[in-house]
# Entry
Amino acid sequence: MRIRTAGVIAASLLCLVGVAACGDKKEDSTTAGPQASAATGELVIWADDKRSAALKPFAEKFGKENGVTVKVQAISKDQQTTFLTASQQGSGPDVMVGAHDWIGNLVQNGAIDPVQLTAEQKSGIAANAIKAVTFNGQTYGVPYATENLGLIRNTELAPAAPATIEDLVKEGKKLKAAKKVSEILCLQVGQNGDAYHSYPLYSSAGGYLFGTNAQGDYDPKDLGVGKPESIAAFKKLAALGEKGDGALKRSISDQNSIATFTGKKCAYLVSGPWAVTDVKKANLKYDITAVPGFAGGKTATPFLGVQTFYVAAKGKNKALAQEFVTNYVTTPDLAVALYNAEPRPPALTAALDQVKGSDPDLEKWVTAGENAVPLPAIPAMAAIWDPFGKAESAVIGGADPEKTITAAGKTISSQIK
Amino acid sequence: MTTQLGGPATRALPASDPEPANRRERGTSVAGLAVKIVLLGLLVSFAVWAAFPLAQDEHWVGLGILVAATALLLYAYLTPRHIPAKYLLPGTVFLVIFQLFPVLYTAGTAFTNFGDGHRGSKQDAVVAIQTASVTQVPGSTEYALSIATTGDPATGGLVFLITDPATKKVSAGDGSGLKQLPAGDVTVTSSGKVTAARGYTVLTVGQASARSKEITEFAVPTAGGAIRSTGLSRAYEGKAGRAYDAATDSIRDTTSGKTWKADDGIGSFVAADGEKLAQGWKVNVGFANFTRALTDDSIAGPFLGTLVWNFIFAICSTGFTFLLGMFIAVALHSSRVRFRNLYRVLLVLPYAMPSFAMLLVWRDMFNTDFGLINNLLGIHTNWFGGAMTARIAVILVQLWLGYPYMFLVCTGALQAIPGELVDATKVDGAGAWKGFRAVTLPLLMIALTPLLISSFAFNFNNFNAIWLTTEGAPFPADNLTNGATDLLITYTYRLAFGASGAQYGFAAAISIFIFLIVAVVSTISFRRTRQQEEVYS
# Structure
């Protein structure tokens, strides 16, 4: 019996200690206002692995200058979903770094706040990048880097840049006949298609995804997939496909397209700035030009992706987050550091001018992206990727374009609410 | 293998032991008591740690459950009675936390429209709509801002000290409006930021960020709208384009006058012309998700086909791996095979490799132009391009990944079958095959049937096997949501997180259907097993 009482007493003592320990914190928070964690002024930034590393020194500098602590946390997978879920639970960051095409979904979930940039700040950023982060007439983030597809060409195998897709295929076939390469073109399709990589060809063949309304914003009610233009465009893709020229193949996927190019098995690669690192490692002589279009077709317009800093709507420290994003991210030093972490063209004109000299590729990427259209950020875009990609792979594999695209259009429009 | 593990200081006694309680208590060692106290102390401190956030967010139900559970645990371990409870409670607690709670949560979600655009409360949606509509008044000034307080930095009333960049005039703004400050009272830097002002305490960034929430909500009313901060060093004159009117429960656009009325049935603000605002909220939708799964043609149509393939996949994956594993185990069970252990080690290798990586490797081996399989066989089959070949391919991959497990358990079960029985069949004149059919296999099945059932249940929902190889491909040209190799679980995943943003509520409803199917199959199988055991016992 005595032992049991001792146990009870010991447990209650521990309990008291626990209460006291937590109680201290509790008292702190009551004196410091509603935000216990913000009492020291804390800013939490989420980014992917590579960018977190580049951000750390700058975040620390910002923290030192202003007497606040800045935490940079790497989110390695599913950044958008993680951010949305965490925000909803109140455990999200104050600043989020991600792609601009998230904007529509983040806004409909009330996860980000608009940012107010001065005219001067806006003029220092590439115009198409500003356009990309503008949604329903509001600016929703500060762009720091752009990316778009281009044609990377092995200049030893193919000295001249092809003017059209037809020229490229002709040249590729010649090289293949001469046993110099095994593939005409490395453009990733994969078993389930790849809307992002096929879009330049689709647009050149006259297809479109969404029409634009009077304000120049994408209009989800005007869906281009399933329309006659898109069927005509897919007929052209089919002609390049497995039953046609064999330039587009389902066997070339995100897993092997860059490796096939660096292994000198094909002379042309359609990819973005992220592929350059591998190409350089392989010691290839290469050049970067715009993705060519069809002869007599429209200009091939790749998608423009913009990496962006967002202010989280449910952050604990929004004032500081706004300060960081609008007045600190807009300085060239940070943009240059982020460029060094991953070589994509900076969106800040001043930063681009700084690094242009040391990296001739940047200018070429910007030129290749001159006609790029910002990735649609409307939530309806989420419904496009999957069906469009699958339709593309089916058509390239020899399915009937008309039937396939009509079905894809139906699938997409039924999902756009 | 024969060493006795050091047991507790006391002999473990069955609960039905008629020994009086005090005897048992005397057996408790000091060390045991110390461990008990520490563990219970940890439990209590954990409970206290968990209680504060619950109390802060006013989750009284959760707090009640926490207090009750802690009290129950403390009572169970501090009383000498209820011996069985002492053993059962930890398991039960974990069962509730990790099994029951997710199941109930999923079931609860299935009756809501939880998903993209409907994640939060109505209040959240209203705030989001209003915040998103604040725009800068055209042609208004951009001010340099310093945040100050009247009195104490942490508690004093907030004041915005703003400097007009053109005139360098400083004004102080608070909830009542702006008033200009005499130039002599303020110190201004070249960039226009106020560093000191008479009668006000200018806050440092650290001090200001501690009051972040107040600052972002603070607005100085002006004629054209209100002056709001953007960060801590700039302010602008902004105007909310849309406002919520509680009386009519609707959102009104201040410029166009268009109104969107709240519809609590679907959790959106809807205008008269049917236009919905993007920001919605989470509401209960009753059985809508379930009826949609059953009535929507694009979902219900392929559902049956997917279900049939799902069964075929699970049965083939389990059956073939079992047959192959058992065949090899029986072959290596014979003492006439030399280097048996070497073979066994080699055969277990696929099981030792991480299946996640192996699935990706296999996917690339099936590639039409670059894949090892086509190159070895000298064929040009697009494995994942045709429905039949893709199905054969995924089952082949499962066979390779799964047979070592079956081989291992069969080897183990074979060791347990007495050799005399097999010898007896020989004496009775049965051949090897007949002996195996009549004696070995039935005895094996007793040990292995539960494992086969669990293997079936696992393969029924083997998400990785499909997602990492074919992603459900190939897809028929006229139906792009449901592929030939899709299992119900990959199909659900695509519905929930794929094409049109996250639809958690709908995916939860489908999960419940899947759960029902697996539960029914497992129940029937276990019943059959019991009958089987009665036959052989």
The longest strand of chain A covers residues 303-312. Residues 2-31 of chain A form the longest helix (30 residues). Chain A touches chain B through 93 residues (CB under 8 Å).
